[in-house]
UniProtKB/TrEMBL annotation:
Name under which the protein is recorded: Sugar ABC transporter permease
Domain ABC transmembrane type-1: 67-281
Main localization, broad class: membrane
GO biological process: transmembrane transport
Amino acid sequence: MKNKKENLTGYLFILPAIILFFTFVLIPVIVMVCLGFTKYNLFSAPEWTGFSNFARAFTDGRLWTVTKNTIFLAFFSVILNIAVGLFLALLIANKKSPVFNYLVRLFYFFPMIVAPVYIAVIWSNILAADGGLLNYYIQKIGFDAVGWLTDRRVALKTIVGIEVWRLTGFAMLTFIAGIKNISKDYFEAASLDGAGVVQTAYYITIPQLTPTILLNLIMYVITELKTFDIPMLMTKGEPMDGTRTIAMYIYETAFQKQDMGYACAISLFFVIGIMILTCVQFITSNRWVHYD
């Protein structure tokens, strides 16, 4: 009887989480899958169309364009976020100045707690082609103004830079925590063997941080593939779809073009792609992640 009461208490504690999961995750996913097989515009009853929405995705030129944009953005943002975060963590770990360490952590983590709207407004004013702060000083030293957000060759790279500046703080803090959990015996042994800073980092610190690297890799890949707010607020996907991501295209298809069925079909492909990529990361992690 006592065990039943304890079990009931446990179930009651997790009941709110279960309700939220069913309401905002499981049921919407089921509805999304069902609507993917229909023609639906939010104002009329869904009409069954079979696999036509899914077939349409393979011949949609714009979808392939935004997919390439998203892959480019995710690939470089993930690599740079992890690399810069790891570098900063190693820098802080080897610096004995509390003031320096505090200022670096503050400078790089602060953007994470600032709303993307404010970040977009600030950077839009700094990077504006006409009257922007950065272009003002570029022209002052004799160079032509750069279309940071209006030149198709540059705009997506600019978004990558802003994403790295905005999100590096998470990687930095997780790597700092990981370094603090490494046994000091390893570093003492390396010091006795005459290992330098670079050798210690390469042979001891980084191998011991591989579980943290895996965590950051999974988190950043999912985050960057879903990127929506910064490019939406700063460029609205322009110029010529040069900064439009899959999430932005889904939003446009669903709510601006009122083609909810096709948007759900794209979303299903998108979710499956992220799930496959995450599974691949977990499966291949056995080859390079060390838990000792």
